Amino acid sequence: MEYREEDFSKAISIWLEWNEKINVISRKDTQDIFAHHILHSLAIARYMDIFYPGVRNTGLSFLDIGTGGGFPGIPLAMVSPRDSFTLCDSIGKKIKVASEVVSGLELGNVNCRNCRAESLEGPYDFVVSRAVTSLENFYPWAKGKFNRSILYLKGGEIDLEIESLMRRFKLDSRNIRSWKISEWQKDDYFKEKFVIEIGKNYLCTP
Question: What is 74-132 written as a DSSP string?
């Protein structure tokens, strides 16, 4: 996974500028945007490179549900310029920030939409999101919107959430996998953070 430090420096500057006008990043987190927001988002790219080598950046389509200020969609779009990303959020002022960052970075592979995911036509190859709600609440929003998998960033005690999700929607455990981000990033911030994949078909083994 490659990225240019200057590109992310520029992105951070735009996020900070807009965050003064529209708060989409916690004030206490503004000093840690790269680690807590950009690297956290890029855990999805790292996950794909581990479990699906050679698939990312080959013309895939992604839907980022509840993107807020553009996470995880914008960092992912920056490292996967051949893939296309639709970022949606029902809150107009949040998608405004994402749109301004996309414009400032001149990202031609990103489309920002102020809408609910249910109103978008699909499917996309992957749905991505960053802990906008519980897995049980999120799954109905994404169901029917993906051909391959949901890739969901979530923290905390995830086992009970996954069990509840499988029970409610009668999902096969072979279609769900979790990966500790701390296997990639050793910072304590990532200690209890995961990428959770929910696929349509049985997932490949590592």
Answer: HHHHHH-TTSEEEEEES-HHHHHHHHHHHHHHT-TTEEEEES-GGGS---EEEEEEESS
CA–CA separation, 37 vs 195, rounded Å?
Answer: 14
- For 62, the 3-state DSSP assignment is strand
Phi then psi dihedrals of residue 68, to 5 deg: 65, -125
Q: Which helix (H) or strand (E) holds 151?
A: strand 146-155
Please tell me the number of Cα atoms within 13 Å of 126 on its side-chain side: 27
CB 197 within 8 A of CB 149: yes
Write the pLDDT tens digit of every residue in 61-112: 999 999 999 999 999 999 999 999 999 999 999 999 999 999 999 999 999 9
Cα 22 to the chain's mean position, in Å? 21
User: For 176-195, how does the pLDDT look when each residue is reduced to its tens digit (9 = 90+)?
Assistant: 999 999 999 999 999 999 99
17, 23, 68, 133 from 14: Cα distances, Å: 5, 13, 15, 26
Which tokens is 199 given?
A: 């696929």
